[in-house]
Amino acid sequence: MKPNNTQIEILVLFNSENGSTYRMAQAIARGINSYPGAKAVLKQVPRIMALKDEQTKSFAAVPYATINELPLYDGIAFGSAVHFGNMTADMRYFLDQSVTIWTQRKLEGVPATVFMSAGSGAGREGAILSFWNTLAVHGMLIVPVGINGASEIDQSVPQGNTVFGASSLTGNKMSPRPSEGELQIAKLQGYALAKAAKGHRLTSEATAEIVPALQENQIEAKLKALNIELPEAPAPVGNYKPYRISGNQVFINQVALINGKIAHPGIIGTDISQEQAKEATRQTMLNVLSVLKQATGGDLNRVRQAVQLTGFFNTAAGYANHAVLMNEASNLLVEIMGESGMHTRGTVGASSLPLNSAVEIQAIFELKD
Length: 369
Ligand SMILES: Cc1cc2nc3c(=O)[nH]c(=O)nc-3n(C[C@H](O)[C@H](O)[C@H](O)COP(=O)(O)O)c2cc1C
Known about the structure:
- By secondary structure, this protein is α/β, with parallel strands linked by helices.
- It is about 35% helix and about 20% strand.
- The strands form three sheets. Strands 1, 2, 3, 4, 5 and 6 form a six-stranded parallel β-sheet that branches. Strands 7-8-13-11-12 form a five-stranded mixed β-sheet. Strands 9-10 form a two-stranded antiparallel sheet.
- Its cofactor is FMN.
């Protein structure tokens, strides 16, 4: 069964009265077992009414399945006699008990295939297709046979093979039934199911690794990857809030505070160099992000996108490199948030800024609904 086992296990679940479906099931199982690392488990569906001579049947020793074990397998081959162009009542009754499994979506994506035993063959293709309806409602991955092996089997006798699944024409006595050809197609069908089940197992394992990574807070993951630790959000120094949410937008204003002091204070180009101004800009942008985190209740995944950044720079008269400084903030934001960090931008030179900061950034972000 599934848990941490490199072998895949596939249930061959059949309902037979006279043994033909059972013989087809055995051929399906042989095909499964011929696939490296795959093992077939043969079980029959419980009966609504016991057969009179059940103990004399070839399949008497095959255990009955319980409905709750279906999700434990890597794949399921369903086999039934054709009854009036449909699956048998036993099979129908059994599958009708799978409502909880269905609503819990436990069979979703699990490979499944259908084989049958018919008399004349009347309605056998329709029977397989109508069986598929139930599997589709469960979201199972249906594996047909196609024309696999069809041209190699003895064409001098009628054969029950269909592109949807193997079947036997037990009413036709031109050869012993199930015929060698019918059993051969069933074997190929079992092999194809095992192959799909192996693929399903590998995909499930890969998804199990990927999904938590995808669910992880992507902005936090990026911050970690860039070795950036957000500073403590600076407390307001007046009668205002560090952020305000209006509708689904967050408004933030920050200066270059770090541990209660301004990083590289003064006039750019006179008191501080361009490099120092860049450091102050980066610090200011980190402060913006740390306030944004506060605004989202600590969950930066709630941010849909950046909207607008406006940078104010305390510059000497004639200074014209504002864009170079503001790029420091823009690049940092896009590096952390990717495409959703893109924003419109305003950049302004000012003759003085609060606390003698060299930089002030106003930011607007949009939150997810
Ligand atoms: C109630 C009933 C309905 C059947 N309806 C069909 C049918 O629609 N088409 C057909 O080809 N055979 C039909 N058959 C024949 C069986 O499908 C056939 O005998 C089959 O091989 C039995 O499988 P088993 O040996 O596994 O019991 C019917 C048999 C019964 C008892």
